[in-house]
Amino acid sequence: MLRKKTKNTSHNVQADMTPMLDIVFILLLFFIVTTSFVQTQSVDITRPSTVCEQDCNKDTSPLIVSIDEHNQVFFNNRNIDIEAIQANLESRLVNNIEAPVIVKIHGDAHNLSLVSAVDQANKAGVANVSVARWP
């Protein structure tokens, strides 16, 4: 048996990276174009102060919405549903449209309860809702 000797010649083989870079840039461009950016919405909250800022002789008692540690909502010393805050505030604001609203929230209550209460007060037409924390 005769065997033919073959020379082992190593060729200098290099891969062309240009097509791969083209694909990467096309994918990057696709993801940038198809991404949607979401604008977050915020709720302005002011803390009540003890300093009289305007018309201190005016006798208006604030409307107080209380949220306890079990996320139960109280208005006028009665338990109400969190979705009923707007209707209750609207019925009380008929007598005095300028009445301030204070949302008292317990430290262990959920933030969603606070945001829902402030949102309901804003929907009722209250321009300035104050938030107070109670233990």
What key phrases describe this protein's structure?
single chain, 5-stranded mixed sheet, 3 helices, membrane, ExbD, transmembrane, transmembrane transporter activity
Could you please describe the fold and organization of this structure?
The radius of gyration is 33 Å and the shape is rod-shaped. The relative contact order is 0.17. Helix content is 29%, strand content 17%. The longest helix has 17 residues, at 18-34. It has 135 residues and is of the alpha/beta class. It has helices spanning 18-34, 85-93, 111-123; strands at 63-67, 73-75, 78-80, 101-106, 129-134. Strands 3-2-1-4-5 form a 5-stranded mixed beta sheet, covered by helices on one side. Belongs to the ExbD/TolR family. Pfam families: ExbD. InterPro entries: ExbD (IPR003400). Its main location: membrane.
**C-alpha end-to-end distance:** 99 Å
Residue stretches low in confidence (pLDDT < 50, at least 5 long) are none
Helix residue percentage: 25-40%
What's the overall average pLDDT, rounded?
83
Top-tier CATH class of the domain at 63-134: Alpha Beta
In sequence order, what are the helices and strands, one letter per element? HEEEHEHE
Question: How large is the radius of gyration?
Answer: 33 Å
Assign the CATH architecture of the domain at 63-134.
2-Layer Sandwich
Which sequence of strands runs across the widest sheet? 3-2-1-4-5
Give the biggest sheet.
5 strands, mixed
GO cellular component, one term: plasma membrane
Family: Belongs to the ExbD/TolR family.
Organism: Kangiella spongicola
InterPro entries: ExbD
